[in-house]
Specification:
It is built from 2 helices and 3 strands. It is of the alpha+beta class. Helix 1 runs antiparallel to helix 2.
Length: 107
């Protein structure tokens, strides 16, 4: 069992397998992964197929996240909101990086 954070998850399928081979890539955020015998189980809180990501959309999402600020007086709530904002910005950056990488591959 492994814990997932924010990052790219690549899956490669053997050519002789049931799926006929090939690769898939996703941006995943939080969750767990488990391999038992020949069965892989992935439970992700959020997952985005890299081919569904666009540079323009990711740039827009990042710009919006960068513009947002936390205006919370309560220190506990302010800390939670800052953490949420940091995650949103990190996700947007990761989407942008993967969108650029995917467009470079011709996906």
């Amino acid at each position: 069992v492994g814990k997932l954070g924010l990052g790219e998850l690549g899956l490669d399928f053997p050519a002789g397998g049931a799926g006929g081979g090939g690769s898939l890539a996703f941006l995943v955020e939080d969750g767990f992964v488990q391999m038992v015998h020949d069965r892989l189980t992935i439970l992700a809180v959020k997952a985005f197929a890299t081919e569904s990501l666009s540079v323009a959309d990711a740039e827009k999402e990042l710009a919006e996240a960068e513009r947002r600020t936390v205006n919370e007086a309560d220190p506990t709530k302010r800390k939670l909101e800052n953490e949420r904002l940091a995650k949103d910005r990190a996700r947007a950056r990761a989407k942008l990086n993967l969108a650029k990488k995917a467009s470079g591959r011709g996906i």
